[in-house]
Specification:
disordered N terminus; ten-stranded mixed β-sheet; 20% strand; globular
Length: 318
């Protein structure tokens, strides 16, 4: 355990995508017309770990970077955010991914990924995995992107089989079409993970791909039928549906002026981790996570924009 994560054992381990996000400092214009960019830590699994750490949780991320300056930046940024970087490996012949964002439109910005020929985080092998931590950590977070290519696909499957749904084992559907040959492949690979997790979070598009329906209630039914104990379906402007085998709730949205829609889901995820570890009821978790996501959407950048508990509570009081 490194000093970065603070005293005590790791509470949450996230696995998967990392990168360096470059955000335009000019909004509402095409990428070709952007003059300057701001650099930020990025990648779903990484941002979620940062968001949970911002809320006081001891987090770590299992991923890989390249042997370059951006890789060094990732490790330094994680440490600064209070996330344990001990499990950030290096892929010797690959480059740390870079992602360009176009704030046009700001609410749903297009992304340009540089992850060729393969991203380091998709080269995770069983030798990279801290198996004792997989067994012991209270909350494990994996993503759909993590099974988009080998060897990470087989590694993540092995992790979930070993984990055997212990504690909180969370799947963030994280479906991004540019990482997949087609929807059918994504449905088969991400869908295969449902039998090994007990919490699933995703938006309507993602559940539509993975379980074959974008209707939140029907999708929740299909997730619960696979043994998931908590389904969390983000509905955008219509709020969030949370469902267990016994109850379900719809949490209304938080209204904010959107600056950048990117990272809102990751802020939501970090707050979801916090609520699960705190033992809150599902409705309270979703309400809190919804507010966290809204705050990120009202700011520019992902990791740097993750809110504190005080900021979330202030928004909920309004």
């Amino acid at each position: 355990m490194t000093a970065a994560a603070g005293a005590g054992a790791t509470e949450a381990l996230t696995i998967g995508r990392v990168g360096v996000d470059l955000y335009p400092e000019q909004s509402g214009v095409p990428l070709a017309e952007v003059r300057t960019f701001a650099k930020s830590l990025g990648g779903t699994a990484t941002n979620v770990a940062v968001a949970a750490a911002r809320l006081g949780r001891r987090t770590a991320v299992l991923t890989k970077v390249g042997p370059d300056g951006f890789g060094a930046y990732v490790r330094a940024a994680l440490t600064e955010f209070g996330v344990d970087a001990e499990y950030v490996g290096t892929a010797p012949n690959l480059l740390t991914p870079v992602v360009f964002c176009e704030l046009n439109p700001p609410a749903d910005p297009p992304l340009l990924f540089y992850r060729a020929p393969i991203a380091p985080d998709l080269t995770l092998t069983p030798d990279d995995v801290p198996w004792d931590l997989i067994d012991a950590v209270p909350l494990l977070w994996v993503t759909g992107t993590g099974v988009s290519a080998e060897p990470a696909r087989g590694t993540q499957r092995a992790i979930l089989e070993r984990r055997a749904r212990r504690g909180h084992t969370v799947l963030d559907l994280d479906y991004r079409p540019m990482f997949w040959l087609d929807e059918a492949t994504a449905r088969a690979e991400i869908g295969g993970l449902l039998d090994h997790v007990n919490v699933v979070v995703g938006n309507r598009t993602e559940v539509g791909v993975v379980v074959g329906t974008a209707d939140p209630d029907a999708a929740a039914d299909r997730l619960l039928a696979r043994g998931v104990r908590l389904a969390v379906i983000k509905r955008g402007a219509e709020g969030v549906l949370v469902a267990t085998a016994d109850e379900r709730w719809t949490v209304p949205p938080c209204r904010v002026a959107v600056v950048c829609g990117l990272g809102a889901g990751d802020g939501f995820g970090g707050a979801l981790i916090h609520g699960l570890l705190a033992g809150w009821d599902p409705c309270r978790i979703a309400t809190y996570a919804n507010a966290a996501g809204a705050l990120v959407a009202s700011r520019l950048a992902c990791a740097d924009a993750m809110p504190t508990a005080a900021e979330i509570e202030e928004l909920l009081r309004r």
